[in-house]
Structures are given as C-alpha cells and as structure tokens.
Amino acid sequence: MEIDKTSGTKTFDPLDMSHYRIEKLPKRRKSKLEHWLALAGIPLAIVAFIYFGYLSSLGFLTDFDADSLTAAAKKVFEKIGKEGFIRNNHLMLGIFMAAIILWITEAIPNYLTSLILIISLVLTGVLPEKTAYAQLGHPVMWLNIMSFILASMLVTTGVAKRFALWFILKFGKNASTIFISFIVINLILSAFISATTAKAAILLPIFMVIAAIYGAKGGDGKNNFGRSIVLQNLLNINVGAGAFVTGSGANLLAAALIGGATGQTIYFADWMTAMFPIMLGLMFTGYLLAMRVFFPLRPEERLPQIEGGMERLRSAYRELGKISLSEIKSVIIFLLILGFWATDKLHGISATAVAFVGAIVALLPGVGVVKWNDVDVPWHLMLFSAGAYALGSGLEATDLPSISVNAFFDNLGISENTPFWRLYVLLTGVMTFSALLFQSKTMRTMIFIPIAIGVAGRFGYDVLSLALPVAFMIEHVYVLPYNSKPAALLYETDQYTYADTFKFGFSMMLISWLIIILAGQTWFQFLGITPNGLF
User: Fold this and answer.
1) What is the mean pLDDT of residues 72-98?
2) Do 110 and 79 share a structural domain?
3) Is residue 24 part of a domain?
4) Percent of the chain having pLDDT more than 90?
5) What pLDDT was estimated at residue 468?
6) Considering the domain boundaries, does residue 66 fall inside one?
7) 96 shares its domain with 151
8) What is the C-alpha separation between 387 and 378, in angstroms, rounded?
9) Which residues contact 241 (CB under 8 A, 6 or more apart)?
10) Predicted pLDDT of residue 510
11) Which of 442, 460, 465 lies closest to 144, judged by CA?
C-alpha cells in the first residue's frame, strides 16, 4: 500500500508483489450458474449415490466374465462371492458418480468431498479401512509433499524470484519477448518442481506485476495483455509439467501403473525424449494463437502503461542483493536432484526417493536452507489427492473400468480385429477431453490408464503403445477454472472470463490431441512406442 499525500489514506499499489500472494487474492464471486450448480450439487450427489448404489440393476455389472478380472479384483471376488462383488460394483459406481458431481459443482470444498469419499468406501465395505486410509501414504503423495518442501526452499531463499526477475529483465525487452521468457521459465521450473500449484504460486506475483505495468487492471479493466499473460502462463504451467515424468504426481502415478502392468520402468529420460519437443512446440503454438488470433495486442497495449514499471522490477531485483550462500545451496540441491532424476536409468532410484533425500538435506539444521515453519504444504490438496487415490483403489478392487470397457465394446459389436489407430484415437481423445469434466489429474489417471491397459490386453496390442500416449495427455487441464488447481487459482485474478479461457483452452486442447495423433504415426514410431503402419 502507498499513502495518498492529499487525503492521507492508503491506496493500492499495483506494482507491490505482496498483493498477489495466493492468500491475498480476493475471492471471486460465483456466477449465477456456479451458484445454482453448488446448490444442486449435494442433492444430486445423494440421488446419484442411492440410485446407482442401491436401486439400479445394471446388466454390465452382472454379466461379466470372472476369469477376465484383474488379480486384485479376483481376490475380492473369491472372498465375497459373485453377489457381494456385484453389490460392491454398484456401490462403487454410486460413490464414483456422487464424488464426480460434488467435485464438479463444488457444493462443498474438494478436500471435504475426498474425506466423505474415503469414509464412504469404508462404511459400504468396498474397501477395508487399512487400504482406504493408507492412500495418504502413497509414494506419489510423498513426492508431492517433498516437492512442496523443495518449492518452499526456492521461495524462502529467493532463488525462484531471483531467477524469474533476472530472466524477465534480461530477455523481456518488449511485450512479445516477455511472453517467450515465461515459456522458458515454466519449462525450467517444470523440470525441478513436481507440483503445478507450487509453480503457479511462484510465478503469479511476477506476471501479475508485469500485467499491471502493461495496463491490465482486472475486473472492468481487463485488457488483452492481462488475458494473454495469465492464460498463457496457465497453459505453460500445465503443459510444461507434461514434458517430464516428474512434472506432476499424476505423471509418476501413470508411469507406476504402466510399469506395474508391463514390468518395464518408465524412466525420466524416456518420457522427456518423447514429450519435451512436443510440449515445447505446444507452448509456442499457444503463444502464437494468443498473440495473433484470440488476444492480439493493440499498439498501446504493447507499451508500459505505468511509468517506471520495469524499473520497479529492477529495483525488486536489486533488493535481493548479492546471491547468498543459502541460495547457492538451493541451486546445488536442485541441480543434484535433477541430475539423479535424469540418470534414473543408470541407478534405478525412484523420483520419490530422490526428492525425499533432497528435502531432508534442505531441512537439516546447520546444513540445510529452510526451516519447517517456512514450509508451505497445502494439506487440503493432499487430502483431496488422498481421496482420488482411494477412489482409484476402489476401482481397482471392483475392476469397474475394465468391466465397463468390455461391456461397451461388446454392445457396440466391435471385433477383436479392430485396427490399432482407431483405439489410439479413441483412447487419447477420451483422456484429453475428460479434463473438461474431471477436477483431478490423479483421478483421471486412476481411471483412464487402467482402461488403456485393459483395452490393449483385450485387443492384443502392446500396453505401452496405448497406455503411454494416453498418459502423455494427463496435463491438459487448463480450459475451465475447475479443471485443475492452477486453473482455479489463476481465475481468481479476474483478468479473463469463462469465454476467454474456453476459446483459448479448448483450441489448445484440440490441437494437442491432433498433435499426439500425428506423433503416434511419426515420432512415437521412431521411438518404438507405437507400432509401424498405424494408419
């Protein structure tokens, strides 16, 4: 805040980065549609649970081949019998539908939906307590926690802010190069940070100050610079995560599921080789579409609107002073972590274990660079994720995805000789556009990766050829505000509307799907992921 010399009252300083911290963002008012959805969410969820869980009698849940069940589901089937197994499947479907409704409508906080989901799985007998509660200790959950510790290290020591400010001041000479600079910054941070929300928290204050410099005030003062810089960063935060298997917990979960089904390890280098060039191309495509098609800048929007604005950034950079010992330690820790991640084929140590050691070193008294009280772990997100993992365990125990897929293909009369490309297009498309409805990357991973694995097995194709391209589409969660945590967070900036994010985000989603189809015929064939002669 600044003091107005005439009135003596405090005025808002748009160039003060502290105003754009997550906890200080004003709570955006819900639209009428969002308000009515929230009101309808709870009764709709209750009706869905009762109908699918107790009243319906769905043929595909009763007429299934017990011999085709997964090993986990067979154990449950043998223990409780066919009638009990059918009952569990109906209850699982009811819980699943109710959770989806609550997550989409946001009738109650998402973490609370997850807690209700977990206890529902226990009380209905779909999962034993030990299995349901154990999801908070899932390896990917630990990776997320360690990643937030390491991200807090970057924030506390000032490394993230120093790097981002330096890069913007060095290369962001005009409006166009500022956007390109954020592409590079996002890619570099994606290699180090396995939490997209953490990246959003680091970058938000910086690009909001730049938006203010170029006249973007938000609310009634929206302009194309503000729309473009926030939406491009939202795209890049997520797409950048898709370039690395460590880019998010959902990527690592997908790699673990595929590895469990094939006995093959999906290494950091394998994923990066396949997806880094594609994601880099998508980020520049997003830049061109935003600048040339959806949000072209008027001449006045290409010039700073606040006098001395960039100088304010230089001042913030100078205030950081010389690089400190703690910052040097932070850089060394992160370079070592990245080095171990990139060479995982050589040593075989998991990404979670590497992050674990890095976090311990960062917290060590006298050696480390961050104290526990400085660590910002969003436990509400952890509880939300635990619910998604519990849902996945319930789906695994009931084998509901495979049973549904088999019934779907049987009803359509699709033969066992279905060409690979049809399945490839269908599965990658379903994974991509499911992001419009689902609120959790983890949940989509737990649902659609097993489906891809099941489809590959049913039709006799290599699991990697279908499941890995499906996994590559996990991070496309930037179209609507409820599609991911960064999307929900950046929507609170009030720099763009639903229409803005939909037209830009949906276009990028469609382009991404078309590119993954093309890659399946070219780049992925070269890498040996997909078979030759896809078409």
Assistant:
1) 89
2) yes
3) no
4) 23
5) 94
6) yes
7) no
8) 15
9) 190, 196, 199, 247, 248, 251, 475
10) 96
11) 442
Element (H, E) at 513: helix 498-521
Question: For the chain, what is the domain count?
Answer: 2
Domain end residue (candidates: 130, 160, 175): 130
Which of 25-29, 45-49, 336-340 is least confident? 25-29
C-alpha to C-alpha distances, 303 to 14, 297, 307, 394, nearest whole angstrom:
17, 10, 10, 55
Is residue 103 domain-shared with residue 161, that is, in the same domain? no
Q: How is residue 291 annotated by DSSP?
A: I
Contacts 24+ apart (CB under 8 A), 408-413: 408/60, 409/458, 411/60
Radius of gyration (C-alpha) of the chain in whole angstroms: 24
Which tokens sit at 302? Answer: 């290409």
Task: Dump pLDDT digits (tens) for 496-531.
Answer: 888 899 999 999 999 999 999 999 999 999 999 998
The structure tokens listed for 141 are 């959950």
- How many Å is the maximal CA-CA distance in the chain? 82
Instruction: Give 196: exposed, middle or buried? Use CB within 10 Å, 0-12, 13-18, 19+.
Output: buried
Q: In 3D, which of 467, 525, 407 has the Cα closest to residue 63?
A: 407
Please tell me what DSSP assigns to residue 462.
-
| b/e code 389-414 from CB counts within 10 Å (16+ = b) | bbbbbbbbbbbbbbbbbbbebeeeee
Element (H, E) at 79: helix 71-105
Looking up tokens 């908070």 gives: 136
- Does 316 reside within a domain? yes
**Do residues 249 and 280 both lie within one domain?**
yes
Instruction: Please state whether beta strands 2-3 and 10-11 pair in parallel, antiparallel, or not at all (unpaired).
Output: antiparallel
104 in the same domain as 201: no
- In sign, the C-alpha dihedral spanning 14, 16, 22, 24 is negative
* Last residue within a domain, chosen from 374, 389, 423: 374
Does 113 lie in the same domain as 228? no
Positive/negative CA dihedral, 481, 482, 486, 490: positive
Better pLDDT: 493 or 234: 234
- Give residue-wise pLDDT tens across range 425-438: 999 999 999 888 77
Confidence of residue 350 (pLDDT cuts 50, 70, 90): confident
* Contact (Cβ atoms closer than 8 angstroms) between residue 89 and residue 403: yes
Look at residues 520, 414, 410, 408 and name the one whose alpha carbon lies nearest to residue 473.
520
Domain match, 118 and 147 both? no
Give the pLDDT score at 475: 92
Q: What is the mean pLDDT of the chain?
A: 82
Residue 534 lies in a domain: no
Give the residue carrying structure tokens 């549609």: 33
Give the range of the structural domain holding residue 359, as residue numbers without chain letter: 139-374
Q: Are 149 and 119 in a shared domain?
A: no
Q: How many whole angstroms separate alpha carbon 410 and alpha carbon 404?
A: 10
pTM: 0.74
Is the separation of the CB atoms in 161 and 130 below 8 Å?
no
